[in-house]
């Protein structure tokens, strides 16, 4: 158990630094699957912790709160799986290679590492910016991993990762709407609430409470 936790912590540190050694380990040792899965689930859970104010404002019970964290982590890991499929399929079409989907999936799983700081999105005024920084950081981790698999070929890797991300984004806004609806239903069911108040509403209210009245000194 302690060895497993040590591997998780080591993987997190090396991935955040974009250390090529961590990508080499991921490629060569299939037993890193559970380590990467844990990182992905923790990343998704951390993102929800950052938005936990929604759960408290909507009066989610403690048991439901924990269940919501678990469900969000699983949903987050699933989104990474879809991104990995898009990257792998793009690479097979545009740059035929022998890289297995399982290896690509492990590299994308490492991309969840920056989201361990997801709890910081709760910071007023800076939350949205921090969320975007984490998204870019995650993209760079995945790009570094795919570049390693491509033997240092940056442009093919950038095309695959970028197009994969674009396909997922466009697909979510179009044909993926039913899937998003199911995801939202699962999350609301786990939380036991319809979420009448969203995070942006709460933060806007907080900001207005802290701002001086117009015309005041």
Task: Give me a quick take on this structure.
This protein has 217 residues and is an all-alpha fold. It is 74% helix and 0% strand. This is Yip1 domain-containing protein.
Description:
This protein is mainly alpha-helical and 217 residues long. The protein has one domain (2-207). It is built from ten helices and no strands. The protein has helices at 2-16, 20-28, 33-50, 52-57, 62-94, 101-110, 127-149, 154-173, 177-191, 199-210. Helix 5 runs antiparallel to helix 9 (177-191). The radius of gyration is 19 Å and the shape is globular. It starts with a helix and ends in a 7-residue tail after the last helix.
Give descriptors for this structure:
217 residues, mainly alpha, 74% helix, disordered C terminus
Work out the oligomeric state of the chains in this entry: single chain
The structure class reads mainly alpha
Number of domains: 1
Order of helices and strands: HHHHHHHHHH
Annotation, overall tally of beta strands: 0
**Helix amount, in percent?**
over 70%
Task: Report the C-alpha radius of gyration, rounded.
Answer: 19 Å
Distance between the termini: 58 Å
Q: Specify the number of helices.
A: 10
Low-confidence stretches: 209-217
Overall shape: it is globular
* Strand residue content: under 5%
The overall average pLDDT, rounded, is: 75
Which sheet architecture does the biggest sheet show?
none
Protein name: Yip1 domain-containing protein
Keywords: Membrane, Transmembrane, Transmembrane helix
Transmembrane segments: 34-57, 69-91, 103-122, 129-149, 155-175
Organism: Candidatus Chloroploca asiatica
